[in-house]
Amino acid sequence: MTVFFTSDTHFGDPRVLRIDKRPFRTIAEHDDALIANWNEVVSPEDEVWHLGDFALHVKPERIDELLGLLHGRKHLITGNNDGPATLAAQGWASVQAYAELMLDGHALVMCHYAFRTWKNMGRGWIDLHGHSHAKLKPQTRQYDVGVDAFGYRPVTIEAILASRARRRKAGAELVSG
User: Fold this and answer.
1) Which helix (H) or strand (E) holds 64?
2) Three-state DSSP class for 121?
3) Which of 30, 23, 24 has the alpha carbon at shortest distance from 55?
């Protein structure tokens, strides 16, 4: 079993096409691509932590349908665009505003919103968040796990941590080149 993280799928919400300039012509195309991308990396036995803003402007039946289509055991960390139907959907293994998780030797704090400070920040704990749609300059050990930051698909902790290392290496190559 692999653990994945994602956020800000905004299924059914046409505003993300305009505001976030997602590369899809229609919200139906957007939703289909996100479902395909999710299921390409997540198996039914995996676990996914969705850090908020799952779906908006859709009927409760559509939320249940989406959760049924998406692989994995799904946990929701609530976001500002998660309405009552999303919170009440039967497809969630858990629903909460905040969670802590120990994974592969990494202590994680998870919330929809990025923290300026967080529990045990000085002891190496990592802050995973969504909400900012890859537009917020991160602090040390802070990562936006939203689909806008990671190719419209869930990612593992290894990929999350490697994303920052790749940026540092690319920056060092530019300076030395």
Assistant:
1) helix 60-69
2) helix
3) 30
CA distance 177 to 169: 12
Q: Which of 45, 44, 48, 46 has its CA nearest to residue 9?
A: 48
pLDDT band at 42 (very low <50, low <70, confident <90, very high): very high
Decide: helix, strand or coil at residue 54.
coil
Specify the 3-state DSSP secondary structure of 34: helix
What is the per-residue pLDDT across 2-15, written as a single tens digit (0 to 9) for each?
A: 999 999 999 999 99
Q: Which residues contact 173 (CB under 8 A, 6 or more apart)?
A: none
pLDDT band of residue 165 (cuts 50, 70, 90) is low
Residue 55 near residue 13, CB atoms below 8 Å: yes
CA distances from 95 to 2, 37, 50, 59, 92 (A): 20, 23, 10, 19, 7
> Do the bridges between strand 73-77 and strand 47-50 make them parallel or antiparallel, or are there none, so unpaired?
parallel
Quick one: tokens of 73?
């055991």
pLDDT in tens, 143-154: 999 999 999 999
If one counts every other C-beta atom within 10 angstroms of the C-beta of residue 139, the result is 14
Whether the pTM exceeds 0.90: the reply is yes
